[in-house]
Amino acid sequence: MAGLHKSEFANPVINWIDTRLPIFTMMQKEYGVFPTPKNFNYLWNFGALAMVNLMIMIITGIFLAMNYQPNTELAFGSVQHIMRDVNYGWLLRYVHQNGASMFFIVTYIHIFRGMYYGSYKNPRELLWILGVVILILMMATAFMGYVLPWGQMSYWGATVITNLFSAFPIVGPKIVTLLWGGFSVDNPTLNRFFSLHYLLPFVLVGVIFLHVAALHITGSNNPLGIDVKSPQDTLPFHPYYTVKDSVGICVYLAVFAALVFFAPNYLGDPNNFIPANPLQTPADIVPEWYFLPYYAILRSVPNKLLGVCMMFGSLLVLFVLPWLDTSRVRSARFRPIYRQLIWLWVVAVIVLGVCGAHKPEGIWVILSRVATLYYFLHFLVILPVLGKLERPLPLPESISQPVLGGRGGGPLPGSAPAKPMEKA
Amino acid sequence: MADSSAAAAAHHAPSGEVTKRDLLQLIAVAGAAIGAGAIAWPLIDSMNPSKDVLALSSVEVDLTPVTEGQGITIVWQGKPIFVRHRTAAEIKEAQDVKLSDLIEPQADSARVKAGHDQWIVLIGICTHLGCVPLGNKPSDPRGEWGGWFCPCHGSQYDTSGRVRHGPAPANLALPPYAFESDTKIKVG
User: Fold this and answer.
1) Is A245 noted as a catalytic residue in this protein?
2) Counting one residue from A and one from B, how many pairs have CB atoms under 8 Å apart?
3) What confidence category does residue A423 fall into, taking pLDDT thresholds of 50, 70 and 90?
4) Which of A75, A356, B37, B174 is least enclosed by beta carbons within 10 angstroms?
């Protein structure tokens, strides 16, 4: 396969490079003329938003690392130094801190999009699995990043999460000692968390590259969940979806900016303004909001090992989702029962999140148990059975047909038709 | 590019003609460039000295323990500052030299504070490649002109800190300083 690429670019410099390394041809193929279903709604913005968010996190993180000291004696002070002394350090840190929350908001919506429109189904199973890997890597990165400021919540979060591994019989305590590099969370732990917190985002970049590469093999799913039948069903990615993504990016940046400039600590925990104290656990210990549902699952089970297994299981079950869902119809739009049950699952996750934020007593224990049960019931019972029982609505012949046939509208179906269904 | 050129051609006027679309495109690109600059600036500026570093911008030095012929080295902004108490012979030597003999001509009077001829205060960094010259201690090699000698590449300075032998191109720099009293200076 050796040999120069025959470049079609007119610009001589671009042509010279492209002949030897056809990156311009590749970009043109994958992001210029790439055929994309023409009926995307705004939920299809969230992959691009997550990509932008990752870039923001990496860039602000690199500059924060120039001023941060990964040492138990200095870490807390160095974060205050960033906030008070470093030029625009407050901005870098607040963007990075709230960027983590934004990243999870964007990613959770992206995952919901995949679940609502059945994007995980054949032939996109591997694409989905890579996405779950990305989610788990993101969670590990976020957890270790939260430890770095070395406040009370950092310290006790690190202690609790690493202690999860102690639940495993025989090897558990050994694993925990290995994670800590000692007999408690201490300087070696902080050093390695900093090292890994810097490394994992670049691993994420690699896995996201595979995620996008797999996407460009199968092509995108779409709100109808049916395959692209002809070129009439697609639009070139540029300018149609570069522009649509740009609109989403503007809205996303506005929300992000509002959070950073008007409520930078709204999603944080006041206990993290207290330097880490290994001798005193804060009275109310809760993880960041994006971990609350998992935390609630952990606490809803009275058995230590089982609780840990359920918590990890709530993530691992996503790996086999493509095979648990037996329905061959992708989009919830054509699955009258699934379309309602998926919202019930969302409610269960939100209930778990609320339960996670409260002390595990009284009504919150019962609620979190019911919600945990429903979470697993949805995946392990409802989805396999529903696929066999549910009678899907008739699918349109093609992406163009409902627009041209039904409404006789223009060639570009907007997001409007999707909205009423989502609210159903 | 070839594939989209057909589509693009529909929007573009024949070459050479300026259209409204060209203006819109320029405005969009200019707007994006301003935005990129606004984003880049806080990142770049965060690498400039932080407020705690800037706060270390001056130090006071008590001169009483420095006897004649002796020099001390203090630290100002992370740099060595030479403070040398010159002997009468060294002052005379520095003042009598013909300016035409110097690599960078400068009178000794321009390098000391009036009335304090015996005190020479210099930034102790060789103007060649940044080494710290020897000669502040009486036991150090001071070179042919009795000032400072740089061990890295052999540059030599006289008792006024002026370069007399290359490869250094310029005299030792003077830090900003002032006499607060006859026995106390404030550098910075």
Assistant:
1) yes
2) 50
3) very low
4) B37
A91 touches chain B (CB under 8 A): yes
Tokens 């960041």 found at: A288
Residue B77 binned pLDDT confidence (cut-offs 50, 70, 90): confident
Residue type at A56? I
Chain A, 361 to 380: residues with Cβ < 8 Å from chain B are: none
In chain A, % of residues over pLDDT 90:
86
B46/A28 CB distance under 8 A: no
Nearest CA in chain A to B54: A85
The count of domains in chain B is: 2
**Position of tokens 């908001």?**
A105
User: Per-residue pLDDT for A64 more than 50?
Assistant: yes
Q: Which residues of B touch A59 (CB under 8 A)?
A: 43
Is B71 in the same domain as B143? yes
**Residue B73, domain extent:** 53-187
Shared domain check, B136 and B84: yes
User: Does residue A77 carry a pLDDT above 90?
Assistant: yes
Q: Using CA atoms, how far apart are residues A198 and B37, in angstroms rounded to an integer?
A: 26
Active site residue A216: yes
Residues B19, B81 within the same domain: no
DSSP calls for A87-109: TTHHHHHHHHHHHHHHHHHHHHH
A244 is catalytic: yes
Backbone angles phi, psi at A143, to 5 degrees: -60, -50
ipTM over 0.90 threshold: no
pLDDT single digits (tens) A116-134: 999 999 999 999 999 999 9
Contact A63 B4 (CB under 8 A): no
| Signed CA dihedral, A375, A380, A385, A386: sign only | positive
Question: B99 and B155 in one domain?
Answer: yes
Locate A327 and state its tokens. 């329905």
Interchain CB contact of A87 with B (< 8 Å): yes
Instruction: Measure in Å the smallest separation between the Cα of A96 and chain B Cα atoms.
Output: 12
Q: Is there a contact between A130 and A206 (Cβ–Cβ < 8 Å)?
A: no
pLDDT, tens digit, 9 for 90 and up, residues A286-330: 899 999 999 999 999 999 999 999 999 999 999 999 999 999 999
pTM given for the model: 0.85
Residues B72 and B117 in one domain: yes
Query: Peptide bond preceding B175: is omega within 30 degrees of 0, i.e. cis?
Result: no
Contact A33 B3 (CB under 8 A): yes
Chain B contact for A88 (CB, 8 A cutoff): yes
